Amino acid sequence: MTRIPILHPITRLIVGGAQENTMYTAALLDPTRYRIEVLSGPQTGPEGSLIEEVRARGVPLTILPTLLRQVSPLNDARALLALIRLMRRERYTIVHTHSSKAGILGRIAAKLAGVPIIIHTVHGWSFHEHMVPAVRWTYILLERCTARFTDALIVVAQPDIEKGLRAGIGKPEQYHLIRSAIPLDEFDPAGVDRDAARHALGLPLDAPVLGNVGRFSAQKNPLDWVRVAGKVARQLPDCHFLLVGDGPLRAEVEAALVAEGIAERTVLTGLRRDVPQLLATMDSFLLTSLWEGLPRVIPQAMAMRVPVVANRADGTAEAITHGETGFLCAPGNLDEAAAYCVQLLTQPDLRAAMGARGREFALQEFDVRQMVTQIDRLYQELLARKRPQH
After folding, report:
1. Which H or E element spans position 154?
2. Residue pair 12/50 in contact by the 8 Å Cβ criterion
3. Residue 201 main-chain phi, psi, to 5 deg
4. pLDDT tens, residue by residue, 118-170
5. CB atoms within 10 A of CB 220
6. CA-CA distance, 114 to 110, in Å (whole number)?
7. Which residues are 94's β-sheet partners?
8. How many CB atoms lie within 10 A of CB 52?
9. Exposure of 145 by Cβ count < 10 A (0-12 exposed, 13-18 middle, 19+ buried)?
10. What tens digit of pLDDT does each residue of 283-327 get?
11. Do 51 and 13 meet the contact criterion of CB atoms below 8 Å apart?
């Protein structure tokens, strides 16, 4: 049987939800049915790189030097031409794009190259309320234009369908909800020695621990995280804090920890890939993102029975049932977030109940095998509809 050639362009392979989603999709789709390749720009950054992990999973990977995150008319034109040449040469049946820059350039290139099927996954829209209006509208117009020749728009959370349609992007029948999932067999609390994990980090075995895993970037809003942690610390003098990750705001985070008086009680791990072990050390997880698609770290924490306190931002409100599997707060309401954290950290029975319900929800909704099956089904539907011939 001739395998169907598919290209997954993505702007950069940093350690992040969109990138892991792309990696698992490429690695787990049936290799006897599909010939999957990934294309990425060269940039990584302080968030860490998935380039070697993608290659280690046996996924063919092309690095396109001119595909950069920053807007650059010359580089963008060169990247577009290179993408068109590649797509014409390799005669891909499907181009499935990810992230904003690769999503725009990749879909334009696919259209110009005559690719039969064009798909884009919205890992959270490229535009949001915290942008300068002119920039926001530029992104909306680009998304509107490329949606006209996109066969399917995959979203990871229901609010992104509503947000896209409100912005005039595409038609309802183009949208398909496929949650960004995780390898649940890796996120099993029974497989982690919590005391050993805490000991390795220098965390007290019996102290409450509030944690986070994520990039130190404006979107993830780590400075508000530190401010909430400071409020928690003043109510719970024995509480410790764990921040996993890195990013452009690292220096500001370190300064804020000192200003809040909790630097000595906070462990900064830097970049780590042993996320299940790190989550197992936490009693509660706090997420202060200002905008999101559906952050995969929420089901990761839930799978490890760690209840989550999060800003009510886009897909987070879909992932958490308020009062059942975690708590949702208004963005910027630091007192509310701190109060929920204290409630969880001081009530072990509540933590256990929410943790159990959260794990059950994660097992039902966020299995990576289910995600790949849904993507495979969508590919087959589109192939049956178009029946491209090469």
Report:
1. strand 152-155
2. no
3. -90, -5
4. 999 999 888 878 788 999 999 999 999 999 999 999 999 888 999 999 999 99
5. 24
6. 6
7. 6, 117
8. 10
9. middle
10. 999 999 988 777 889 999 999 999 999 999 877 888 899 999 999
11. yes
